[in-house]
């Protein structure tokens, strides 16, 4: 199973340039998935990080993990239950940045939901480029009510 960027936009509030993931593949209902992010050399996140030797910031790898997990969860739960909800990152643990992510690559984010308790979910993930581990982390998120814009 695979969902594209248009479907991801229907699940997440993020928009360009902050919508980082391009598709979600290998989806196992509320359990795991692989998110694909096309890391581009003209991406906003590498323009000044670092001139002449661009590297994707580690904090944005963590953000991409969070977006992938939010999309997996939003896609898996009942649409009526998720209506008017957002997924907020609560904590990040055990983040390790093992190799720099250099633009013009496909970053694969293998994520897994390791437990849920009510509206709080815990996940773990591994980021890879061409099968090589670039980063890994564990994080928690919560599902909250979306505030109405007035």
Query: How many helices in DSSP terms?
Result: 3
- In CATH, what is the class? Alpha Beta
Q: What radius of gyration results from the CA coordinates?
A: 15 Å
Question: How is the main sheet built?
Answer: 7 strands, antiparallel
Lateral strand order in the biggest sheet = 1-2-3-5-6-7-4
Provide the CATH topology: Thiol Ester Dehydrase, Chain A
Annotated CATH architecture: Roll
List keywords for this structure.
single chain; 150 residues; alpha+beta; Thiol Ester Dehydrase, Chain A; 7-stranded antiparallel β-sheet; 3 helices; 7 strands; 20% helix; globular
Report what the structure shows.
The structure is a single chain. Helices cover 20% and strands 44% of the residues. By secondary structure, it is an alpha+beta fold. The chain has one domain (2-145): Hotdog Thioesterase (Thiol Ester Dehydrase, Chain A), CATH 3.10.129. The mean pLDDT is 94.
Write the layout of secondary structure elements.
Layout: E1 2-3, H1 5-11, E2 23-28, E3 32-39, H2 58-76, H3 79-82, E4 85-97, E5 105-117, E6 120-129, E7 132-145
Antiparallel strand pairs: 1-2, 2-3, 3-5, 4-7, 5-6, 6-7
């Amino acid at each position: 199973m695979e969902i594209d960027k248009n479907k991801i936009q229907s699940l997440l509030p993020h928009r360009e340039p902050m919508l980082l993931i391009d598709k979600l593949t290998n989806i196992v209902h509320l359990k795991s998935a692989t998110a694909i992010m096309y890391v581009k050399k003209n991406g906003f996140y590498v323009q000044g990080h670092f001139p002449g030797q661009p590297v994707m910031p580690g904090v944005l790898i963590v953000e991409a993990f969070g977006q992938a997990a939010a999309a997996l969860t939003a896609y898996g739960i009942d649409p009526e239950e998720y209506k008017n909800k957002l997924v907020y990152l609560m904590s990040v643990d055990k983040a390790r940045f093992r190799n720099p992510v250099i633009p013009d690559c496909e970053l694969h984010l293998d994520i897994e939901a390791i437990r849920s308790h009510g509206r709080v979910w815990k996940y773990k993930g591994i980021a890879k480029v061409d099968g090589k581990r670039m980063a890994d982390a564990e994080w928690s998120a919560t599902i909250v009510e979306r505030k109405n814009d007035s």
